Amino acid sequence: MSASPSGSDPSPTTADIGTLELVEYPHPALFRKAQPLLRIDEGVRDAIEQMFDIMYDAQGVGLAANQVALPYRMFVVNVTGNPNDGEELVFLNPTLSRPRGTAIQEEGCLSLPGLRADVRRPERVVVDAFSLDGQPIRLDLEGFLARVVQHEFDHLEGRLFTDRLPEAAALEVKRDLELLEDMFHGKQARGELPTSDVMQERLDRLEAERCR
Predict the structure, then answer these.
(1) For 28-210, which CATH class?
(2) Does residue 193 contact residue 57 with C-beta atoms inside 8 Å?
(3) What residues does each domain of the chain span?
(4) 196-210 and 42-57 are packed helices; what angle lies between their axes, rounded to 10 degrees?
(5) Selection from 102, 103, 51 nearest residue 74 by Cα
(6) β pairing state of 62-64 and 89-100
């Protein structure tokens, strides 16, 4: 398990993260393994706040840093999907252990609009992480919350729920993924999105600021 990230702002020179947006497949951030945070600064706190807003606007129940083009091991969850209800959970540098049981349930992903499929996952799991205040968290989860946490943790590993599908189901969504690729590359060709190289360079810079 990674060391606890510092709860103080160590350097006023650390660049702001800026305005975040939900990214869609096949943005490079979605395939990149996120790195542990070594410190919590105002940029991280602002990013978490933005992530909740983006998640609610998209009617989601969880959102990982990769989905807003950040290379950090962190995600947010509120299983109600309602900013006025439920509990807002923040997980920094999470690890999962003690998977138990098996459950199959339909999943979707905000970064894969329109795609849904049944996914097999452990029914229960233990998550260890740190809060936004740098305090250790350990939760023994089951049911829907366990599934959401596992889904978001997969993002931090650069893995999508479609990667967990059996062969037949994976073939069914292949065409949908190809359409998303065509749309993404079309936006790049029209200048509506940066090139993949520019996206990678930004991820490298952000990672260097808080993970090294």
Answers:
(1) alpha beta
(2) no
(3) 28-210
(4) 130
(5) 51
(6) unpaired
- Going by C-alpha positions, the residue among 50, 55, 47 that lies closest to residue 14 is 47
- Contact between 89 and 62 under an 8 Å Cβ cutoff? The reply is no
CA distance 156 to 44: 16
Compute the distance between CA of residue 210 and CA of residue 45 in angstroms, rounded to an integer: 13
Cβ atoms of 202 and 68 closer than 8 Å: no
Tens digits of residue pLDDT in 51-71:
999 999 999 999 999 999 999
**Considering 24, 107, 152, 209, which one is annotated as catalytic?**
152
Does residue 152 have an active-site annotation? Answer: yes
Please write the tens of the pLDDT for every residue from 16-45. Answer: 899 999 999 999 999 999 999 999 999 999
Return the pLDDT at 15.
64
Strands 89-100 and 103-108: unpaired
Mean pLDDT rounded to a whole number for the chain: 94
